[in-house]
Structure formats: structure tokens, C-alpha cells
Design goal:
14 strands, 3 domains, elongated, 22 helices, Alpha-Beta Plaits, TIM Barrel, alpha/beta, eight-stranded mixed β-barrel, disordered C terminus, five-stranded mixed beta sheet, about 700 residues
């Protein structure tokens, strides 16, 4: 390349020939300088490319070595866990012979340790020497435990394990965790350093390329080849990291993210091919107690053992650890009968080999239209029922679907919004005293606003219980009821529904409750707190709170009596001012002698305790006639009634005209039902105190 130097480069003096020779000399100097610069650019570009390739290969080697060492550390951790689990199993079975599994786990640990020594971990050598020493001690201690078990000294074996083996194993785990963490940090730091160097090189090459576009073409080819090689290496590394991100480190099962990815894929496949699919959710019962009793190492052993149970299922069925003590299981192309058998077998294996732990299982069979349902929520609802029914059992959603509300994130959010924003209204329904034919009081009934999308108050309370916000919802209902009390006639008695779980909750204070009532302008004697029979799990705790409230003037009612199996027992343990008999029992008693026996028992207990009996759900004249005559000797029996026949729930101001009409109706009915010389005993069929029928009164005939 030839250029003309500027006139200032060499002084333009002398003859033209001299000036020409000077110009040629300047051109030659410039040409040589240009060639030198171009060669420098070529050398710089080539050197940069070679450096990038070498650095990339070194980085790949470092990352690969880090992963290999991490794998060795993981194998030692796995072998250690197996040794510990097997030793625990021997102790549980009280076997005095060293098991083959311990031997194999020890061999696995030693093999991994030898691999580490061959690789030469200079930075971790002290920890590795400590591990080797502790492993030898563990083997010796486990043999001593086995020998002690062989002699029948189980207590000494437990002491050796608790005082020597367990601290040693914990120290080894800590050492392995430290090594793994160090290797992970080293690999991440190496990758970051490699990325930084690559970025600096790309900037440098970009600047050099601007000086020689033609020469850069060759370097671009070289850089392209390197980039493809680097991308391929990065893709392999990313795949390994992605797999690690989808796996639970303790159990080697898929984790929460893996579960949702796989379940969506299997759900789509089941829809496409019309295959049945089963989703099961599994929860360890009282896992906190398991951890507290045996320590976290025992808890880890339980989790690992349950995960091993999943691996005995079919190869195409997959298990996941989706939480601390929560697992999920996807059974593909599995019908209801096969699913029930498989899950029963799994639960039996866990009972036998789960190191003393038990699990509750809830599952749902998905096929046809159910594949479009909120499948996780259905399985979770079944799991909740398994827990509620006593744990350590398996519940299929189909078997409880008629009696439960499906829990879903949408409904949970709706209830949270209801509580946070107070989105409910209060309706009042009158309760009548049959003798005076005047209202005894009014029951406050919560009504969630329609825009929340809840089916009714029962679903709101069920969801609140699931999300552990039942006390907050009860508090909101109390506040709304007290605010709406201005809609009632002056001095009215309010029957206020309250969950027994909220009543015994630590946040509930009887004095604060009464202070809230007084702040609303009401007296404690105007409040009757209704507790549902079906939800009383701890009668003794309820009795204590009931006594405290009654001492402050609040009266207590037992609601829905006869709807469950605990009514008579609760009545015998807790003193109630009012007992409300469930509509279902009234309907059943009108047709069944067994139900009449239950009703007679409730009336008899009320006679002994002095409780005022109220019949709920009275909707027809026949039901009114029945409860009007439901007595036992020397006791009036049912005295109050509530139901659509005598008034529907009303929001806003209570209609006084409606109350007058229902009063007139009840008074006329009572006058027409008037009896001579006593009251007819609808339970025994006799007149109170005489043992004979009154001729002028038609007896109640049970069919």
C-alpha cells in the first residue's frame, strides 16, 4: 500500500530530486509502518483468539473437575446417609448382625473417598483426612452397636448411637456440606470469571476489528468457531444445572417445580389420548413431633425412607417432594381400582418401613371432564379430609365429594379479601317461644357478598378454617352483627354463631369479648353464643371458656345438636343455656324410632341440666305439631322453634308487620292445639304424670 506523507513529515527543502527522494523515503517509512500496524493487528487478533480458546478450555476443565468432585462428595454423603439409615433400621429390628446394606454403603463411601484422593483435593485435604478418620470410627462404632445388640443390651446400643454415632455422623455431614458448598462456589466463581474475560475480549476484538475490516474476516471465522464450541459447552453445563434445579437434594425425587412441569405435561397427554390419570398428595403425620422426638437426622431418614417407597411403584409412576413433609405422586394411565390398590400398598409399606412415621394420603381419579377440574385442589381437599378423619389413612376425593367444599387458591383469596375488607352482611331470623308465642330472640346469620363467588357462609367458614383464619372470620362476623343490632327491636336477644375452635384459640379473651358487646350498646345478657356440635374437638377446653363467658353474663347455646355423633356426650360435659336441635334429627324422628330415641335422650339431658330446647328448620305445620308434642315426663321438652314457617332471615330492619303475622299464626296454632289436664308426651305417647291418653287430644302417631 502506497501513501503520500504530509509535507511536515520531512522538511521540503533542497532540489526537486531531493524532495522526490524524500517523498519516496517518507512513503516507504509509512508503508513499513502500515504493514507493521497491520501485522500488529493480526498478531493481536490471533493472540486474542488463541487466548480465548485456551481460557475457555481451561474454564471448561475447571468446571468439569468441580462437578466431578461435587459428585464424589455427593456419593459420600449418600453412602453416609445409607449407613446411618441401615444402622437405625438394625437398631429398630434389634439385629445383632452387620447388614449387607451397611457393608455396601461403607464400600461406596470408601470408593468415593479413594476417587477424591486420586483427584488430589489439596484445598480440602484436612477435611478429607478428618472424614476418613471419622468414617473409620463410624464403622467401628456401628460394629460395636451390632455386637451390643447381639448380646441383647438394647439400651447400651441406644446410648452408643445417641452419644457417639449421631454426633460423628452429624460432623461428617457438616464436613461434606462444607466441601460441596466450597466446590459449588468455586465452579460459580470460575464461570463468572470466564464470562467476564469473554466480555473483555469481545470488546477488545471489536476495537481492533475497526482498524482492519478485511483482516477481521478471518478472525471472525475463528471467533465463530470458538463461540459455537463455547455455546455447546455452556448448553451441557446448563442441562446439568437444570437437572439439579429440578431435583430434591435429600430424597433425589423431583422437587416442586419438577412436579408442576410434569403434571401439566401428563394432564395434557391424558386429555389428548383419553387416558385416566391419578394425582395423590401425601403428608407425613405430625412430622414436627417426629423431628422433635428423633432429631433432624431421624427426620431426614424418614423422608428418605418414604422416598424409597415411591421407587417401588411402577417405573412410569413418579414421586415428588413438594414441601418439607409433603409429597406428590402421579399415577399415569391408572384407573380407580388400580390406584386404590397401589396407594394402599404404598401406605402399608410406609407403616412397616417408615421408621415409626405414618402418612395421610388424599387422591383424585381424573378422567373425562374431571381432567379440566382443579385437580390439585381436589386432591388437597381429600388429603385434608384424611387428616381431619384421624390421619394415617387414604381418602379418595370421590368418596367425600358430596360432603366437602373444594379448597382452591381462588376461594382462599376470596375469603382473605372478605376478611380484610369486611365483605359480608348480617341477616336476622326470629326464634319463637311456643308458650308465649313471642320472639325469644334473633339468630344472626352471616352472608358473604355475591361478588366473592362463594357458595355461602358454610363454604366461607370451611375455607377460613383451611387457611387458619377462622378466628379472624368469627371476629369479623361478631363486629358486623353488633353493628347491625340497631335493626332489631330494642332489648332483643341475639344468637351469635361462633366456632368452638375460635373460642378456645389463644387470641380469644372473654373479657375483651364482653367489652366489645358493651361498646356496641348491648348487655352481655343479650348475647347467646352458639357453638356447633360438629366442630367441638376439645370439650374440656370449651367448657372452661363457656364457664368464663357465663360468669360474665353471656349465655351459651349448642347448635346443630343431633347432626353428629357427639351431641349427647358434649351435653353431658358442658353446661348449655340453650340446646338447638338440628332439622335433620327432627325430620328423621318423625319417621324413625331410632331417631326418636336420640331426640328423647337430648330432651332427657336438657331436663337434668335445665337447658332450653329449640327446634331448628321448622318449615311445615306437621313439623310444628311434632315438636310441640315432643316431651318427656315432667318436662316441657321443646319450647322454642325457628324456621321458614315462622320467618325467613332478613337483612336491614326487621319487619314488625311480619313479626305480628307470625305471632298471630303461632298463637292461633297453639290455641287450636290446646290440651286438657296436661301435655301430651310425643316421645313416650303418654300424658305427663297420668300414664294415660287425654281423650280430647289426638295422639301423635309415629310412622
Amino acid at each position: 500500500m502506497t501513501t503520500t506523507a504530509p509535507s511536515a513529515f520531512i522538511p521540503a527543502a533542497g532540489t526537486p530530486a531531493q524532495r522526490g527522494s524524500h517523498a519516496i523515503a517518507r512513503a516507504q517509512i509509512f508503508n513499513r509502518l502500515s504493514i507493521a500496524v497491520m501485522f500488529a493487528v493480526i498478531i493481536a487478533i490471533g493472540s486474542s483468539g488463541i487466548f480465548a480458546i485456551v481460557k475457555g478450555q481451561e474454564s471448561d476443565g475447571v468446571v468439569a473437575q468441580s462437578f466431578e468432585r461435587a459428585n464424589n462428595a455427593s456419593e459420600m454423603r449418600t453412602a453416609l446417609d445409607r449407613e446411618d439409615v441401615e444402622l437405625l433400621s438394625q437398631m429398630r429390628l434389634r439385629k445383632g448382625v452387620e447388614s449387607e446394606r451397611i457393608v455396601r454403603a461403607t464400600e461406596m463411601f470408601n470408593a468415593a473417598n479413594l476417587a477424591v484422593q486420586r483427584d488430589g483435593w489439596t484445598s480440602s485435604e484436612p477435611l478429607l483426612k478428618q472424614l476418613a478418620s471419622r468414617q473409620a470410627a463410624f464403622v467401628a462404632d456401628s460394629r460395636e452397636v451390632a455386637g451390643t445388640l447381639a448380646t441383647g443390651d438394647y439400651a447400651r446400643a441406644m446410648r452408643i448411637h445417641a452419644e457417639i454415632v449421631t454426633p460423628n455422623v452429624s460432623a461428617m455431614r457438616s464436613a461434606l456440606d462444607a466441601i460441596s458448598a466450597k466446590l459449588f462456589r468455586a465452579s460459580v466463581a470460575g464461570a463468572a470469571e470466564d464470562a467476564r474475560i469473554m466480555w473483555d475480549l469481545e470488546r477488545f476484538i471489536g476495537m481492533v476489528t475497526s482498524l482492519g475490516v478485511l483482516l477481521m474476516a478471518g478472525f471472525a471465522v475463528l471467533l465463530g468457531r470458538y463461540k459455537r464450541s463455547a455455546d455447546a459447552s455452556a448448553a451441557v453445563t446448563l442441562a446439568v444445572l437444570e437437572q439439579a434445579a429440578l431435583t430434591d437434594s435429600l430424597t433425589a425425587l423431583g422437587n416442586n417445580r419438577s412436579f408442576y412441569d410434569d403434571f401439566e405435561r401428563e394432564l395434557a397427554r391424558a386429555k389428548r389420548h383419553a387416558h385416566p390419570l391419578v394425582l395423590a398428595l401425601i403428608d407425613i403425620d405430625d412430622f414436627k413431633a417426629v423431628n422433635d422426638k428423633g432429631g433432624h437426622s431421624h427426620g431426614d431418614a424418614v423422608l428418605t425412607r418414604i422416598a424409597e417407597g415411591f421407587r417401588t411403584m411402577r417405573q412410569e409412576d413418579r414421586g415428588y417432594r413438594i414441601g418439607g413433609d409433603e409429597f406428590a405422586l402421579i399415577l399415569v394411565e391408572t384407573g380407580p381400582e388400580a390406584a386404590a390398590l397401589a396407594l394402599e400398598r404404598l401406605q402399608n409399606e410406609i407403616r412397616e418401613f417408615g421408621l415409626g412415621a405414618s402418612v395421610s394420603i388424599g387422591y383424585v381419579n381424573l378422567s373425562g371432564e374431571q381432567l379440566d377440574a382443579e385437580s390439585y385442589e381436589l386432591a388437597d381437599t381429600a388429603l385434608y379430609e384424611a387428616k381431619r378423619l384421624g390421619r394415617n389413612q387414604t381418602v379418595c376425593f370421590e368418596s367425600v365429594s358430596a360432603t366437602v367444599n373444594v379448597f382452591s387458591p381462588r376461594k382462599a383469596e376470596a375469603v382473605r379479601t372478605l376478611i380484610a375488607q369486611g365483605l359480608l352482611s348480617t341477616a336476622f331470623q326470629p326464634i319463637w317461644d311456643m308458650q308465649s308465642t313471642h320472639p325469644l330472640g334473633f339468630e344472626a346469620l352471616a352472608r358473604p357478598l355475591p361478588e366473592l363467588g362463594l357458595s355461602g357462609p358454610q363454604e366461607a367458614f370451611d375455607v377460613a378454617e383451611r387457611i387458619r383464619q377462622l378466628p379472624e372470620l368469627d371476629t369479623l362476623c361478631t363486629r358486623k352483627t353488633l353493628e347491625a343490632a340497631v335493626n332489631l327491636p330494642a332489648g332483643s336477644v341475639i344468637f351469635l354463631n361462633y366456632s368452638p375452635a375460635s373460642l378456645v384459640h389463644g387470641a380469644f379473651d372473654p373479657n375483651t369479648f364482653v367489652a366489645t358487646v358493651r361498646a356496641a350498646g348491648l348487655l352481655p345478657q343479650q348475647i347467646v353464643m352458639e357453638l356447633t356440635e360438629r366442630r367441638i374437638d376439645d370439650p374440656s377446653a370449651v367448657a372452661q371458656r363457656v364457664a368464663a363467658l357465663r360468669a360474665l353474663g353471656v349465655r351459651i347455646a349448642l347448635d346443630d345438636t343431633g347432626s353428629g355423633h357427639a351431641g349427647l356426650e358434649i351435653l353431658s360435659k358442658v353446661r348449655f343455656d340453650f340446646v338447638k336441635i338440628a332439622r335433620g334429627l327432627i325430620v328423621a324422628a318423625m319417621a324413625s324410632s331410632e331417631a326418636r330415641g336420640v331426640l328423647a335422650g337430648i330432651i332427657a339431658i336438657a331436663r337434668e341440666t335445665g337447658s332450653y330446647l329449640i327446634a331448628e328448620g321448622i318449615e311445615t305445620g306437621e313439623m310444628l305439631d311434632f315438636v310441640n308434642k315432643a316431651h318427656v315426663p315432667n318436662f316441657a321438652g321443646v319450647r322454642g322453634i325457628q324456621g321458614y314457617l315462622l320467618g325467613r332471615p332478613q337483612t336491614g330492619h326487621v319487619d314488625s308487620r311480619s313479626l305480628e303475622l307470625h305471632h298471630d299464626f303461632l298463637a292461633a296454632r297453639q290455641l287450636a292445639e290446646g290440651r286438657v289436664g296436661g301435655s301430651v308426651d310425643a316421645i313416650s305417647g303418654e300424658e305427663s304424670g297420668t300414664g294415660r291418653w287425654v281423650p280430647s287430644v289426638k295422639p301423635l302417631v309415629f310412622r
